[in-house]
Amino acid sequence: MKNILVPVDFSDQSNYAVEVAIDLAKKNNATLLLLHCVELPVRFVTESTSLFPEELYFMRNASLNMKNLSEKVISQGVSVKTKVETTSLVNTIKNLLEEESADFIVMGSTGATGSKELFIGSNAEKIVRTSPIPVLVIKDKTDISQVKKIVFACDFSKKYAEAFLKATSFAKLIDAKIDFVYINTPYHFLSSREIKMLINDFSEEHSEILSHNIHMYSDFSIEEGIIHFAEDYQSDLICMFPMKQSTLMHIFNGSISEDIVNHSEKPVLTIKL
To answer: CATH 3.40.50.620 region(s) of the chain?
Structure first.
């Protein structure tokens, strides 16, 4: 974690994310890259003319806010770069991951519900869906030093091996413990004996898991199980693992990771499988 990308819109949630990113940067001697994408009216981005007065206003206002924010970061002893763009957030982040070698994203979010969730989604949801690097989504003011219990819900199959290593590395960084949990649902029900066999097989190759807590938890759906487990066990952060899928597949099938990002009030760390 050497280059932390932080998309900002200067909202409260965005500022909370910057505070978390500063703390993580201090632990890793990392550089922050603050990114703001100016959302211009459609005519500004479709007409091939020089800058409009309104566009100049938006850009100058964004640049001033970014200057103030970067000064706050510098005052905390953290290196910072800034970027203000007029392209879409998703496309800009995609390009910056290569240009700046970003290896971690921290961003604020208010989530999305109803028709907005189905057809548009929150910015955080879109980034989670497309980002090849870990994304930490912050909903409220968060002291990362107080995050001591992380939920890692999985089926203990081999596809989680790399995610397991990244999650345990993050837990070590912030001095937290992980609660590994298998969510048992009526539609994908396994006996306790079968689940224990899966856990035993996984732990044979990844013995470090035995230094953390391992649970089985039953609920009506995986999403509800993860959220309810996090509430019952007073977890501080939820770790999720989105898989690649097309926009059309997302509309019809959805994504548990993206649903958790939208609906959970707790911070969510996503690690792409």
So the answer is: 1-108, 141-267
Q: pLDDT tens across 117-128, in order? A: 333 347 888 898
Q: What is the pTM of this model?
A: 0.89
- pLDDT at residue 81, rounded to an integer: 96
Neighbours of 230 (CB within 10 A): 24
Q: Which CATH superfamily is domain 1-108 in?
A: HUPs (3.40.50.620)
Q: Give the pair of three-digit tokens for residue 254.
A: 């959805």
pLDDT band at 88 (very low <50, low <70, confident <90, very high): confident
Give residue 265's identity as a one-letter amino acid code: E
Per-residue confidence (pLDDT) for residue 52, from 0 to 100: 60
Q: What is the DSSP secondary structure assignment for residue 213, as one 8-state letter?
A: E
Instruction: Measure the CA–CA gap between 56 and 59, rounded to whole angstroms.
Output: 5
How many C-beta neighbours within 10 Å does residue 18 have?
Answer: 24
Report whether 40 contacts 98 (CB < 8 A). no
Superfamily the domain 141-267 falls into = HUPs (3.40.50.620)
Q: Cα torsion for 181, 185, 190, 193, to the nearest 10°? A: 40
Q: Pairing mode, if any, of strands 268-270 and 3-7?
A: unpaired
